Amino acid sequence: MWRLNKVRHKAGQQGGNLDELRLKRRENERALRQARRDRQLVSKRLLLNEDEEQPDVSMDTAPGGHDIVSLLHKLQHSGTEKEAHLKALSKVLRDPSAQLTFIKHENSMHLLVGLLTGSNAQCRLQAVRCLHELSHSSHTNVAPACLPATPYLLTYLSGPSTKFTELCLYTLGNMCPDSDVVREKLLAQGIIPALASCIENQRHTLAVVEAAAFTLSQLLQARDAPEKIIPIVLKSTLPSHLLSVLTPDPQFGLAPAIECAWCLHYLICSTDDNKELLAQGALSQCSSLLVSLGGAVTEGNKEDGIELLIWPLLRCVGNILSSCPEEDLNAQLTDAHLPASLCALVQAYLHTLPALARETVWVLNNLTAHSTEFCSALLTLNLVPGLIQLLPFSQGINTMILRILANIAHKKKEFCVQLMQLGLLSALCATLKMADQEMVIQSLDILFMMTVSSPVVAEEFVRQDGLSLLEVLQYNGAAEMRQRSTYLLEKHLLSYQQHITVDNMPDP
Amino acid sequence: MDTVEVLQVDRKEAMLQPEALQLRTEGRDEQQERRLSESEDGNNPFSFTPQIIRLHKDHELFEDGDIHRHMYLQDLYISEAEDKPALSVSEFACHISGCSAVFSALEEYEHHYNALHRHVCCSCRRSLPSARLLDIHIQEWHDSLFTILAQKQDMYQCLVEGCGQTFRTNKHRKDHLIRIHKYPPDFRFDKTKKERGRRETKRKEQKDAAMEVVDDVCESEGVCEVMCNSPSDEPEGGESMETHECEEKASAEDVLAAAQDTESTAPRKPQYSYRIPNTVCFGHGSVRGFRGRRGRRK
């Protein structure tokens, strides 16, 4: 993955600057989190020149209006050195204030578009490079100024030059988040069909596929996407193309698959009914890929950035399950290894990326909610003890695990007995003492299902001195706990108490 | 990452698409039969049904993954995480209303519970550190037969296990403890009943007036608030043993009367009520500590 390699390289080189880098990353992360909370999470990509190691904003020459104006003048009047001037212009346009100066200058865009569509191929390349720099601007009024160029950029998507096409794509992708007007125009100019045919025709040029999928993902994240963009995309051939590129190419790397997976995630989570995508095999493909990635991870092949692919795939599977009727589940999910792979992923990422582990157990909940087969699989494949061991971990992990276990207990009384044999009762005796109310209430819910299912379970619970735990809960401040524990005690458990006398009461 | 609130995949906040439990009419599992009859019981508070949880694009659960993705887009991705995100572990808490103790380990919870809630006197709700001391307490404080016999015989046992000596009065025992067993003169477990004082009667009145959660059930401070001091049931919670004073004196009759009053006038606990009746006790040792009162509770 060319981008990842570059970053690592950078980090390794600057020994002294490592702290600075760390600080910068942390600041950026904080800014991103705040942006997400404000629903303003937007990123742009800058395609570097071949000779560039890293984006270098600091200029040797003082940037400014002076440079822009003089360069534009030169461009208008020179004959043969246009290419050189354009190259210089693209370097100057890396600077934010120069970008603003450019768009304020009358005729500047007109001039650039002229060069973009001219007969000189090299000039066209440099012109699009200039546009690309402009598109990367963080000022939201720069992108609208580039609108005159977009019909041509879209036309060029079917062109033969990879580098050129890439630049066009990333430029368009950068422009998408900046304003409604820009997106409206792009949609009217046919960006969706253009992207579809681009991916279809250039399927084997993975750099182009990556760029096209990135651009699509920018469109799909827009706030008005569910109404204005996603229906069009779903009707196009894009979903099937995305699915066909989903399996990563071992040589090229994960990047195109990553972009496609995120596109699919945005598509799936934005619509309630995903029958179309189901019919195209989205669930089976995503889950198969998850299984193979899970296998790679467990074997220790943690390729750099693999979680960037695992993450959207998990979300695709998790959300699309709600569109899949129970009867069709087995037909759609052809890979029986999914439960085991998911459990493996949880273990693999529990300590390094707990958020990923949390999303994985969410998927397991959705998988087991209405499927007796998958609940049974968790038992037969001996995955339950591993899940029980995760019950100490908070921040949403243990509550979700209890949901999964409750899903299992809910299905059959034989499952309850098996859960008991696997030690769930003693685990519940611990979770009933947790501070988190949600954990206690869910524990009570499972306990209810299990004790009602079979006298064997009820007796075992009493033998493990569970009655005193419930009695304590009868005096809890929360009504939900009091009601449940009292009900359980009075209706179901106290009858077992006769068997317990003072003499055979276990010692404290 | 923040605490538990960040994850809002709970009953109230997630975009849930509840799928109703489908009870197929043919081939009904016994499990489902039983559940059906349970759910027909109007009092059944259990409501769990398996649910597929759908999460929209901006859900909080997705925050970390989105950030990861955008860091990558902005060329800020690094393969090895620099600061390992902290994996949180659930805490434990004493669930007895009024006790706000929280623990990071299960053993701490068990220790707390055993120390404070296990050997609790049914009548006066004092927490005793051991079954034996509880037995002695009940005998000496709540057994009218003891009071009668004590006038004629040596009824006060030495508190040291294995000593076996008995004494005519509390004071004699105390002297014995200090001289022979080198106990401190202000040993907490050996105060006289008289020193409990009027505070107890006042508190009981407050308690009856209180509507909801009663918080006088236990001491959250150390083990020591036992035979001497009254249970700390001020709304704010326990008093530390250092500051508690048992100055007010009441006659033994007053105290006995108060205790009796409580027992006779305590309302029978209604189904799922939210007041803790005075006579109800709990705890693992309750059978021993409360002399089989458990059966009475129903």
TrEMBL record, chain A:
Record region (Disordered): 1-20
InterPro entries: ARM-like, ARM-type_fold, Armadillo
Cited SMART domains: ARM
Coiled-coil region list: none
Biased composition (Basic residues): 1-11
Taxonomy, superkingdom: Eukaryota
Gene3D superfamilies xref list: Leucine-rich Repeat Variant (1.25.10.10)
PANTHER family associated with the record: TRANSMEMBRANE AND COILED-COIL DOMAIN-CONTAINING PROTEIN 6 (PTHR16356:SF1), TRANSMEMBRANE AND COILED-COIL DOMAIN-CONTAINING PROTEIN 6 TMCO6 (PTHR16356)
Protein name as it appears in the record: Transmembrane and coiled-coil domains 6
